[in-house]
Each structure stands twice: as structure tokens, then as C-alpha cells.
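ingest -> validate -> predict -> emit
validate: passed (alphabet ok, no gaps, 82 aa)
predict: started
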Amino acid sequence: MLKTMHYHAHQDLREVHPEYSRILSAAVINRSFREKLLSDPALAIASGFNGESFDLTDSEKKELSALKGLTLSEFALQISRI
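emit:
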């Protein structure tokens, strides 16, 4: 069962907006960005990462900002459903 669930989550993430993938990649490689993303997604997105900004619409920013208090895995899964 877990393998099936993992497969579907992975399959969904491949279809996700490229900027969401960039955000998740930054969160994986940088603890500070990850903590900021999980506690205050709006601030993390507005701050960008490593001198680069994220190209998201206001609607996308709003949707991501609603994803608080999650683990990174849960955050990624929620992004895949946006």
C-alpha cells in the first residue's frame, strides 16, 4: 500500500508547476529555507532563495501560504494537489 501511495505522490509531483519544484528543491537542500517555508510560506516565497526569486501568481502564492504547520513531505503532497 505504501509503495502505491508513494508512486502516486511522485507521479503527481512530476506534473507540478516548475516553480513549485524549485521551492521544494530549495527546501530539501537548505534547512533555514525549509524552516521558513514550513512556518511562513508567504515570507519564504517573497524572500526567494540564494538570490533568486520564485515566479508565482498571486493566486499561487495565496494557495501556498495556506499550507502551514506541515512537514516537508506533507507540504510536497499538498502542493501536488494544487
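The longest helix spans residues 2-14.
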